[in-house]
Design a protein that fits this description.
This protein is mostly beta strands. The longest helix is centred in the last third of the chain and has 16 residues. The chain has a nine-stranded mixed β-sheet, sandwiched between helices. Strands 13, 14, 15, 20 and 21 form a five-stranded antiparallel β-sheet that branches. Strands 2-3-4-5 form a four-stranded antiparallel β-sheet. The protein is built from ten helices and 45 strands. Helix 3 links the parallel strand 40 and strand 41.
Length: about 700
């Protein structure tokens, strides 16, 4: 086992951290973050965005302002979101919530303006300058001249237009999709009138108010989604003729380059039969099924197809069909031409293309499961070229207009943040920023990472360990296992401090050892790794976490009589699973927003991994924590947002009821008005509460 460590050393005069320093929402949090640059592109020219101004950015000459907020007149509070949509025009795009403008920074005048006040989910198209938006539940389109067209009449909380559907699953994060020429708009319509209401309550009026939320639980009636297409020229809307939408999912909407065809991945409710289907954008008629993928577990489309910028007859599709997410080249009629990437690693993102070299620019973890690095993939040969330094974990990368340049922000265990700009043809790079350690002068913990074998004895699992700055291997330390463990996330990667959460630093400062392990079921390790938990959430994950506990037991400085566990959401589920299934191992637990029984979780996520309560009764029974309430021996605090619309309060309250009936004694705390995660300064209060519980009962 290899252990990789990062430690800044300790001096007697070093300062101590507070939660106001470390926690998001803390009063000093922003000052404790690594220095950053806010950048964008104007064609091939790198641009900076500051609060008061924007302009060109040169690695040697630094910043050259082109406009300031004073130049704009009126009420403009920030230039942080400045964009330069036209590579050949000196225009900057800005929106202050009342109007959006194109400002000519050479002529020093506003070249175009459009009202934006009251527009929700606004989606502006740079080609037509038209915007789609929602107002009072109705969907509208406003053209470049300010002419407005109302596309819906029946919008309501039950009939939802132009917003994300299917509860943001399947890669969906929006509800409107402009064609490349900006003349047609595809949009979602979601009928959730048949979905049961969950009775959320607003406690802040004199008499608490009923605020129901549409929440389709696993096995229950789900919503129905259709896709409309509005044409700016004809001012007519057609709906795609996809057939009965009952118990079907429509996702990853894409357009053909000529704006005549719409492509959608269609998925059955069981999520094991996925089809890529094309539709005529003018008539709404179904054209063809281009691709089909089935599974004995599930297929999860996360990315729309993307056409090659230089060849409108070919597109790239992402799929995990060979066990890892990779790129495939297809002809427009659905013929697979070749697999572009292959190997026991994952393509994490397709960022775009270098049109000159005819290459796709991607993020992958080819070098190491804990890394995220930038590559160019030649479409003709499949050859991959590493573009960045090949270290660390990239936060983001953004391509220039031609794709021949990219700026990347990344960190590594001992690098708070670096920003570099790369030539995507030859990989030559220039450093734009090397951030100093913002924690200089503080007593910093020791951050380590290593690996151990999963419960199957074969699979490598990666962990992070955080130790006090003055760690002494001859002493015994109370130790906390922090856990998430679920799909679509991982806790350990090769970013700054091995991706350690600030609260871990706070606890290490108070004399705890923290241990964080990514079990099977977590993200970015391939399909078999993720699907090991299928139909039995929490079971394989617990086995792997207990392998981590075995490792802790082998360490002389871990006090196994003072072992705690903490997690949120899926991690809250794992926390209660561990403390009730292994009551003699874990002394103290803090479970935030925990799933208690998957029958109370939503349809899309829940049924993907667990099926329905009717189709998988044994799995639901095995994974439910209600029967485990009687096994609670240690101290357990359950925390929830009182208005959590993701893991609804029914979970926590039902577990409390089971504990009452069983005679066990958990503690409980709710944050009124808060949802699944505590926002703003409430997060500081939350983490002080979590800390205090371990201080009271574990230390």
């Amino acid at each position: 086992m290899t252990i990789l460590s990062a430690h800044a050393g300790i001096n007697a005069q070093d300062k101590q951290f507070t939660l106001e320093d470390l926690n998001f929402g803390g009063r000093n949090f922003r000052n404790m973050q690594p220095k950053n640059l806010w950048l964008t592109w104007w064609g091939e020219q790198l641009m900076y965005q500051d609060a008061e101004q924007g302009g060109t950015f040169d690695p040697k000459a630094d910043k050259n302002p082109l406009f300031t907020l004073e130049d704009l007149g009126g009420e403009w509070h920030s230039a942080m979101n400045a964009q330069y949509p036209y590579a050949d025009k000196p225009l900057v795009f800005l929106n202050n919530g009342r109007e959006r403008i194109l400002y000519d920074f050479r002529k020093k005048e506003i070249a175009w303006r459009q009202p934006s006040k009251g527009q929700q989910y606004a989606d502006w198209n740079k080609v037509s300058k038209a915007v789609a938006y929602v107002q009072n539940d109705q969907l509208y389109v406003m053209d470049a001249e300010g002419n407005t067209r109302q596309l819906s009449e029946d919008g309501s909380r039950e009939i939802v237009y132009g917003q994300s559907v299917h509860r943001n699953e399947f890669g969906i994060d929006k509800g409107t999709f402009w064609s490349p020429n900006g003349q047609r708009l595809a949009f979602y319509r979601m009928d959730q009138s048949m979905v049961a209401d969950y009775p959320q309550v607003d406690i802040f009026p004199r008499i608490a108010a009923y605020e129901p939320d549409k929440y389709p639980m696993a096995g229950m009636t789900s919503h129905k989604v259709t896709v409309g297409v509005y044409d700016l020229n004809t001012q007519k809307t057609v709906y795609l003729q996809a057939g009965d939408p009952t118990d079907r999912y429509f996702t990853n909407i894409a357009w053909s380059p000529d704006a005549k065809t719409v492509y959608i991945f269609e998925l059955n409710r069981a999520q094991n039969d996925c089809r890529l289907v094309s539709y005529n954008a003018v008539t709404g008629e179904r054209i063809a099924e281009l691709y089909r993928e089935t599974s004995d577990k599930y297929v999860e489309p996360q990315n729309p197809i993307v056409f090659l910028p230089w060849d409108a007859t070919k597109f790239i599709m992402q799929s995990q069909k060979d066990g890892y997410n990779h790129l495939y080249l297809y002809s427009a009629d659905g013929k697979e031409l070749k697999q572009l990437t292959k190997g026991d690693w994952v393509v994490l993102n397709l960022l775009g293309f270098n049109e000159k070299t005819k290459s796709a620019i991607i993020f992958s973890n080819e070098l190491n499961p804990l890394q995220k690095n930038l590559y160019a993939v030649n479409i003709a040969t499949g050859k991959r070229t590493l573009l960045d330094k090949g270290i660390g974990y990239a936060q983001t990368a953004v391509l220039s207009a031609s794709g021949q340049q990219a700026y990347e922000k990344y960190s590594a265990p001992d690098i708070p943040r670096n920003i570099e700009v790369f030539n995507t043809t030859n990989g030559k790079g220039t450093q734009l920023l090397k951030a100093d350690d913002p924690w200089e002068g503080y007593q910093q913990p020791i951050f380590e990472s290593g690996s151990l074998k999963a419960a199957d004895g074969v699979t490598d699992l990666y962990y992070r360990m955080v130790k006090p700055a003055d760690f002494d291997a001859t002493k015994k330390y109370p130790t906390i296992v922090y856990v998430y463990g679920g799909p679509h996330a991982h806790n350990v990667d090769a970013s700054w401090h091995w991706a350690s959460r600030p609260w871990e630093t706070y606890m290490a400062q108070k004399g705890y050892v923290l241990f964080i392990l990514d079990n099977r079921g977590a993200a970015n390790r391939g399909l078999a790794f993720e699907q090991a938990t299928f139909h039995q959430l929490g079971q394989i994950e617990m086995q792997d976490q207990m392998k981590g506990v075995e490792y802790l037991k082998s360490l002389p400085y871990v006090d196994m009589d003072r072992l705690g566990v903490h997690g949120w959401s899926f991690g809250g589920f794992m926390t209660i699973s561990l403390i009730t299934n292994y009551p003699d191992v874990f002394k103290v637990g803090v479970a935030g927003g925990p799933v208690i029984d998957w029958k109370w979780y939503e349809v899309m996520y829940g049924e993907r991994y667990m099926g329905t309560p009717e189709s998988n009764p044994e799995g639901y029974a095995k994974c439910s924590l209600i029967p485990q309430a009687k096994n609670l021996k240690g101290k357990l605090q359950i925390i929830t947002g009182y208005n959590d619309a993701t893991v609804v309060p029914q979970h926590c309250l039902s577990f409390l009821d089971a504990c009452i009936k069983a005679g066990t004694q958990p503690d409980f705390f709710a944050y009124p008005g808060e949802e699944h995660n505590m926002r703003g300064h409430s997060s500081v209060h939350l983490h002080e509460r979590i800390t205090q519980y371990f201080e009271d009962y574990l230390k």
